[in-house]
């Protein structure tokens, strides 16, 4: 579910190319296996639509223009805002912030800390940005390789983001799945504590009618209740705003009534589930916000990672259709 202007650029793409979208350089692929869009600001995957027959039949997965009615084009919406076009597994706001702001949507890379935890923040007064500097930084596309009848992209930041830590991102896309990994290499001399997230904005029919399976019985910290510790009773039904850090490495399934998306995580014992509810961010309308739910592969205060010199940490997520759909 992406803004119409990004959809139009994809429709005009045959193969692979670089375009300018929302003031950012964005790499696009439209090939027999499916579609992928990656912003070089933040190495942020913005769009993924696999060509597998099952994916194409899932509700909302078509990109045909005449089916673009549902999301974001309603009369209640600000006329100035672009419409959102259904199709794809990720959501991107129709009104992204200008640079140097970050684009809300897709899969932002939060590194080397999650939210306001500021692990590994080297600024003198520990005043680094929410979610760390990586998501707003310029990244370089180092390589595009063939991978399992799809593609594998390798990205690195243009400038050094930390004196001891070096991140890189790998994106694998094919007709069945999207896999993103954020690898942190310690090239320094002293242990460093990191957190982080693959802050996935997953496209849904209606955020407040979603179910997330796999969390029953898990302990979580409720950020909307001053980090109160609670236990998930039964499966999670999303009915309003929520901001929770679940302590689990379980595989999750997001069911929005139309599609059952499996969210597998690697190197992550924290699953963050977030939706702003009525507390809308400045860059997103109420109408547009109805169509995403964040299900994040993360390392949070629940499972920070102490990296020692020479070590690496891989934080990953794999999105695929649940086979029991
Ligand atoms: O608005 P952003 O900086 O992108 O952050 C969006 C959200 O990210 C995470 O999910 C946090 O748990 C939330 O507390 C935060 O509000």
UniProtKB/TrEMBL annotation:
GO terms classed as biological process: carbohydrate metabolic process
Listed EC numbers: 5.1.3.15
GO molecular function: carbohydrate binding; glucose-6-phosphate 1-epimerase activity
Keywords: Isomerase
Keyword RNA-binding attributed: no
Pfam family, one: Aldose_epim
Ranges of compositional bias, category Low complexity: 60-77
Matching InterPro entries: Aldose_1/G6P_1-epimerase, Gal_mutarotase_sf_dom, GH-type_carb-bd
Domain of life assignment: Bacteria
Annotated segments matching region Disordered: 56-79
Isomerase keyword on record: yes
Name the record gives this protein: Glucose-6-phosphate 1-epimerase
Provenance organism: Halomonas cerina
């Amino acid at each position: 579910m992406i803004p119409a202007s990004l959809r139009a650029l994809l429709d005009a793409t045959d193969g692979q190319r670089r375009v300018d979208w929302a003031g950012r350089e964005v790499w696009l692929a439209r090939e027999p296996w499916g579609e992928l869009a990656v912003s070089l600001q933040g190495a942020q995957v913005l769009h993924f639509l696999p060509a597998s027959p099952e994916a194409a039949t899932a509700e909302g997965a078509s990109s045909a223009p005449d089916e673009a009615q549902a999301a974001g084009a309603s009369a209640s919406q600000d006329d100035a805002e672009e419409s959102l076009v259904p199709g794809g597994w990720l959501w991107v706001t129709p009104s992204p912030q200008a640079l140097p702001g970050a684009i809300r949507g897709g899969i932002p890379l939060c590194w080397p800390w999650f939210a306001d935890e500021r692990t590994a923040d080297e600024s003198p007064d520990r005043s680094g940005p929410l979610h760390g500097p990586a998501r707003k930084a310029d990244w370089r596309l180092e390589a595009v390789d063939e991978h399992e009848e799809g593609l594998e992209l390798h990205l690195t930041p243009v400038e050094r983001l930390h004196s001891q830590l070096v991140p890189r991102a790998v994106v694998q896309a094919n007709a069945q799945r999207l896999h993103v990994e954020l690898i942190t290499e310690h090239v320094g001399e002293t242990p460093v504590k990191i957190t982080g997230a693959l802050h996935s904005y997953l496209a849904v029919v209606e955020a407040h009618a979603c179910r997330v399976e796999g969390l029953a019985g898990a302990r979580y910290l409720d950020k909307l209740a001053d980090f109160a510790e609670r236990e998930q009773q039964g499966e999670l039904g999303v009915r309003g705003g929520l901001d929770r850090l679940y302590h689990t490495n379980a595989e999750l399934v997001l069911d929005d009534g139309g599609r059952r998306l499996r969210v597998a995580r690697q190197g992550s014992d924290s699953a963050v589930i977030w939706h702003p509810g009525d507390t809308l961010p400045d860059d997103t309308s109420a109408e547009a916000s109805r169509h995403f739910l964040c299900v994040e592969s993360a390392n949070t205060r629940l499972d920070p990672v102490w990296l020692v010199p020479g070590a690496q940490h891989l934080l990953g997520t794999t999105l695929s259709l649940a086979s029991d759909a």
